[in-house]
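DM from R.C. (forwarded with permission)

"hey, sorry to bug you on a friday — could you get me a structure for this? deadline for the figure draft is monday and I only need the backbone to look sensible"
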Amino acid sequence: MRDLHRPGRSVAMGARGAAATSHPLSTAIAIEVMRNGGNAIDAALTACVLQSVLEPHNTGLGGDCFALVWNASTKRLHALNGAGYAPGALNDGRLLASGISQIGTEDPHSITVPGALDGWNRLLCDHGTRSLADILAPAIDYAEHGVVIAERAAADWAIEIDKLRADEGARLHCLTRQGDAPKAGDLMRFPALARTLRTIATDGVDAFYRGELTRTMVSSLNKVGALHDRADFADYASFYVDPISTHYRGLDIMQIPPSGQGLTALVMLNILAGFDHSGLDPAGPDRFHLQIEASRLAYGIRDTYLADPAYADVPVEELLSQGFTDRLRGRIDMRKAMPPDLVLPRPGHADTVYLTVADAEGNVCSLISSLFYAFGSGKVCPETGVVFQNRGVGFRVQSGHPNCVGPRKRPLHTIIPAMALRNGKPEISFGVMGGPYQAAGVVHALQNMVDFDMDVQEALDAPRGFRLAGPFEAERGISQETLNDLAGRGHPVSRSDLPFGGGQIIAIDQERPLFRAGSDPRKDGAALAF
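My reply, with the result:
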């Protein structure tokens, strides 16, 4: 892990447009789209699809997406849920009868119907100006001719080698001819994925959800033991939702409602809003103690209540109410940690792509796509090259639990795009990747800007840590003195082997206009503006 310091990292600034993604090439492509007349949504979608080729372990056609889009024409914030659901034949009774009490990360039952492509297409049709073929074109080109693997991608890839070697399609499409993970600087081609993307560009999204590609994918899923059928794909549709929000230090923080975990970030912010952070060291023990305790409370709420609202009552209004927040906040003692059995065990790490784009016309897109864990389930369709996500790991196999697995049900989702509005207009478009860490990461980055007056790049560079049921895992930028103090308050502490998450931010000055863009050094990304 690189040492991360503040201050001193540059910030991209411009007035015509800005883009920040987790890969410099996709950032450059997004800028090129806007230079050639496309808007922020066109640019974001083009970059996101390209990320499927640049970082196939993080995102792709077999994953999901969420988005917050500020449309300059409608002057409204639009929230899109592109989360897939479980196949119609899957339920808790069937799993329990088979002796399965928990869905594993490489279990075929972890594979939910992919929602990303339908979500991308819906955003394009409703808010973009380009054709589907236009936004797929760069990804097709690089899939056919090859991409040079970046440093962080290569490091993440190598960790998954055993998982990839265990699947026929993964061995064929995600490893070198020698059966190894590519190294930084290696050229990787994805010819099957290129053909799949070209078919979609020609025939539209129906080719993926209702065509020959569907038959091929369902056949490959059934061969590995998944229960999908063609109707599960044909009936799928992404949909718009009403965003949820809370007010924090003069900003309205917007999130996608459940079954996403955006509510977790809002609960954290409500708790933290009751504490004065002025004068606190942003990397000191008081700041991290507050963040740890607020996150443990908020994640406990997440694991108890969050589920697909089509199948369970999720009391969002009550969970964000002042009275409920006061009761949560009253649990925090600045001198000592709460009891260790407060929250449920921590989920595992996960892999995601977040990006944000803004243009001079006022359009802003905060977009996140994911396969969940690296290379999702590790199952890849041999014929199409589609990597299938394992979002079903987010389900419980626990009859009666709101988040229990069920037919056509969406699991608890970790990916969360964020946007902050001031006086009804976008001021910050941002997101932080990293599986369950994302809610805490969004709060950390926002507080860095709002409470500690950091610029967008400093806010991303600043050291991070995370604690739920286990120890507080700290990046190297957090001092040993801070860890010793936290330990004295009753927090178990350790050093994290890997950095937490990765993020992108665009701050929008509505008066000039001016964009400031930053990209996280924990990833291979870049921020550009013009």
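R.C.: lifesaver. The first strand starts at residue 12 and ends at 14.
me: no worries. The CA atoms of residues 292 and 356 lie 27 Å apart.
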